[in-house]
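TICKET: design request
STATUS: open
ATTACHED STRUCTURE:
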């Protein structure tokens, strides 16, 4: 290769990706998973991509006008090629379907440039003479590993970096910069709260009240300051919102469904006011784990969500078989909570063996991997004849905190939610 040859680059891919991001801002989420502004070859493209990310994180509308305004405000519009160049970029948009493909090309070229720069530095050092060759080779090996990690992970695996991250987390918790959401009162003795990077699974046989239970603990979490993102794979978003209103207003869900609300208007307005303030985000048209992750990342950035709920996981779009779908879900949900530093609560059906009375199995329907991936597994069972409103919540798995046990709960008379049967001083049934 000639010494004057241009370094690896993909200008057309950079232009296509930026055009797609301007036309369809959600493509930024896909792109930012793979690369950063520093990965673009052309300086104007670095500035444009960085400004687009800024707009997205601020929650501002993204279009030609707001992008140019953002660049103008930071004194970078001319360096980014000016409004005429950005207009030409926007006019070149065709489709966002190739965003990931373009992002991977750009990242690959960036890594090749970094590797080339590193190799040139190694050659220059070797020409100048090395006093301690062994030490120098060790340094080179370390740098090469760092380059390799850059293509695979954004998180450092080094003990010192992990400890620094922990100290930052503890400091932020002490100063109130991180808000730890307490678990519902009946769980707090065994599970102090909804902590980041934990996957919860709420299991139960059909008709045991899993969705109502989830609705109640989400309302409790929101009242404690949680930002909620709920994926409803069974009920409509309107039905989920009515469930929350019913629980908060302590009125019959049936009244909301039938529109017979004249006797409850003040209670409903109070519940609506609280929910408007808490702003739970509810999707009823998402069917894949990949889309759940993308939306979760979007709302983590824009809205600061800290709890994602899925009701229920067996309703995910099937790929080949239920088993393969659930294995895929287990792996990806576990990765998602770690990447986004959130809590995820998945509602799950259970298999027939686990449904048998006094079964010690944790058999979530479809794949054992769901229970294996979960940090916490709650098990719901209903009372027999004459105790239809009674429900037991058994902590079957509690990897972070250790303690298990059974909590006796009861649906309220209006069937909106569940409450503790005993007060805080009562012992758990083991």
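STATUS: resolved
RESOLUTION: sequence designed for all positions
ATTACHED SEQUENCE:
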């Amino acid at each position: 290769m000639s010494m004057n040859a241009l370094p690896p680059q993909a200008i057309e891919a950079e232009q296509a990706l930026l055009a797609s991001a301007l036309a369809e801002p959600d493509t930024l989420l896909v792109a930012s998973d793979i690369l950063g502004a520093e990965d673009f070859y052309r300086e104007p493209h670095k500035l444009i991509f960085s400004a687009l990310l800024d707009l997205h994180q601020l929650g501002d509308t993204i279009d030609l006008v707001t992008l140019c305004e953002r660049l103008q405000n930071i004194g970078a519009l001319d360096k980014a090629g000016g409004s005429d160049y950005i207009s030409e970029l926007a006019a070149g948009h065709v489709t966002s379907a190739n965003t990931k493909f373009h992002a991977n090309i750009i990242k690959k070229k960036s890594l090749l440039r970094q590797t080339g720069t590193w190799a040139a530095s190694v050659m220059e050092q070797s020409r100048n003479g090395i006093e301690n060759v062994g030490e120098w080779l060790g340094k080179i090996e370390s740098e090469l590993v760092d380059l390799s990690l850059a293509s695979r992970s954004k998180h450092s695996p080094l003990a010192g970096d992990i400890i620094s991250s922990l100290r930052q987390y503890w400091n932020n918790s002490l100063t109130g910069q991180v808000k730890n959401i307490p678990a519902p009162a009946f769980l707090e003795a065994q599970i102090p709260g909804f902590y980041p990077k934990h996957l919860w699974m709420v299991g139960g046989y059909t008709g045991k009240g899993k969705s109502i239970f989830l609705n109640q603990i989400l309302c409790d979490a929101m009242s404690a300051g949680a930002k909620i993102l709920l994926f409803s794979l069974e009920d409509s978003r309107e039905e989920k919102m009515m469930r929350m209103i019913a629980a908060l207003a302590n009125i019959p869900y049936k009244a909301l469904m039938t529109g017979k609300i004249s006797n409850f208007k003040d209670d409903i307005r109070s519940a609506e006011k609280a929910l408007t303030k808490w702003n739970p985000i509810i999707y009823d048209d998402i069917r894949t784990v990949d889309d759940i992750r993308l939306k979760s990342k979007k709302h983590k950035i824009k809205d600061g969500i800290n709890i994602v709920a899925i009701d229920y996981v067996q309703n995910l779009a099937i790929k080949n078989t239920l088993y393969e779908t659930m294995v895929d879900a287990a792996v990806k949900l576990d990765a998602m909570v770690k990447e986004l530093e959130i809590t995820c609560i998945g509602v799950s059906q259970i298999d027939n063996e686990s449904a048998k009375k006094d079964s010690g199995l944790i058999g979530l329907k479809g794949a054992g991997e769901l229970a294996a991936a979960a940090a916490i597994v709650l098990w719901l069972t209903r009372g027999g004849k004459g105790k239809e409103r009674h429900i037991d919540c058994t902590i079957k798995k509690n990897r972070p905190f250790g303690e298990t046990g059974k909590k006796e709960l009861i649906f309220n008379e209006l069937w909106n939610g569940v409450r503790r049967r005993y007060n805080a001083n009562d012992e758990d049934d083991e």
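CLOSING REMARK: The two ends are 72 Å apart (CA to CA). The chain has two domains: 1-154, 181-420.
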